[in-house]
Amino acid sequence: MSSAPLLGACERDGKGCCERESPAPAAAGHPWLRRLVDTEEAWAQLQFAVPMVLTNMAYYAIPLVSVMFSGHLGDVHLAGATLGNSWATVTGYAFVTGMSGALETLCGQAYGARLYRMLGLYLQSSLIMSAVVSVAISVLWCYTEPLLLLLHQEPDVSRAAGEFVRYQVPGLFAFSFLQCLLRFLQTQSVVLPLVVCSVAPFAIHVPLNHLLVNVLGLGLAGASVAISVTFWVSCLLLLAYVLRSKEFSETWRGFSADAFKYVLPTIKLATPSAIMVCLEYWAFELLVLIAGLLPNSTVSTSLIAMCSSTEAIAYMITYGFSAAVSTRVSNEIGAGNVEGAKNAVAVTMKLSVFLALSFILLLAFGHSLWASLFSGSAVIVAEFAAITPLMMISIVLDSAQGVLSGVARGCGWQHLAALTNLVAFYFIGMPLAILFAFKLDFYTKGLWSGLICGLTCQSSTLVVITVRTKWSKIVDRMQLEKANYVA
């Protein structure tokens, strides 16, 4: 195993300074570019971020494909699958994804400190925690239909949604374990296998849906079973890779009862990490529900749903850099390199803003084409064009906060980020959205303007936290904690 905890981009000399093995291709020329950004660091992060983006897109597309196959069964099936997919994501998948964020701190810093055995112990403790949480969520999922009826959803749609969610219970366990394994590899900068173990299962997911839904005639149940099967295939592929690869000979030394000692520290970080993720995700879902209360609710709901989907797709790109900066910061903190951590943050911020600006330029010139992919209604396409300027602002803000949230995970500030999200979205964003939409009659523009206010508050707070960070104190604390770790 390489002892360098820095994306494999460098080795350390005797003084702890970074010596590059080879310069990034971009560093060979363009002096003006090197003055703008650390090209070697940027190239290393790009090599990390692109595979993470592809991996995230593959996992995002798996349930989406099943919803598409369900849609061909009828309108009620489509509505049920769509509602069920949202319910499963909000109550389960988003939560376990957030909980795995604890490993970005624990494994990342341990790897940087070269306390390799700790990675395996943290992984096992996280798997134990994920199994228990998945059992609790499974019970909730079994009551999906009555809960949706309690929320005044259509009975037929609620029944279809309940069926769609119920057969994903096995897949929930696979997905929660999958997220833990993904973070375990991510914090060691092993990212290419993640692409293989996500894209390959996705490739079989499409024909599997056709087989179960159309050939065997299992309907919604078949589409849902396909999700569970695909997640388990991906999970087992990653697990087999970790168990059989010599690359993890130091970080994975087999199952150990010592892992139970670290369940509580993992929970302490995992809980605010999950809350941090869910609070933001729920805000977007809540916006769609509120849109249903506006005049001409069909258009309003469709428009806000389109905006949320567009924002989610843009965030997938940011997610790659969020994962990169989380890994870079946690590795550098563990290695005791303050300047490396600060430089990683600066470079990632520049890259994320550049990508966000590129994305909004595409949106500015292609918003009509993009909207037409969602709807053939001229009214909705025109409304989307009108709200596009607000979308541009929110995408830039979401890109910035995404990266800063990655910094928070790398440093172990999940509790601060969770509190920030609570205040920004539920004490500022949502109340202002309701005020603008209903009292000032700005309708959908008012809802999205309120969200922008929340994102502004969130991003500004995270910027202040990051700027005022005493990096040396974090590093010193990490060095003091080494004595309590199992070497």
UniProtKB/TrEMBL annotation:
Q: How does it sit in the membrane?
A: Multi-pass membrane protein
Signal peptide span: none
Report the subcellular localization: Membrane
GO CC terms of this entry: membrane
Q: What is this protein called?
A: Protein DETOXIFICATION
**UniProt cross-references to PANTHER family, sorted A to Z:** MULTIDRUG RESISTANCE PROTEIN
Can you provide one Gene Ontology molecular function annotated for this UniProt record? xenobiotic transmembrane transporter activity
Q: Which residues cross the membrane?
A: 42-62, 121-144, 164-182, 189-208, 220-243, 351-370, 376-397, 418-440, 446-467
Q: Which domain of life is it from?
A: Eukaryota
Q: Which UniProt keywords apply?
A: Membrane, Transmembrane, Transmembrane helix
- One of the protein's GO biological processes: xenobiotic detoxification by transmembrane export across the plasma membrane
Q: Which family does it belong to?
A: Belongs to the multi antimicrobial extrusion (MATE) (TC 2.A.66.1) family.
Report the InterPro entries cross-referenced here.
MATE_euk, MATE_fam
Asked if Transmembrane is a keyword of the record, the answer is yes
Main localization, broad class: membrane
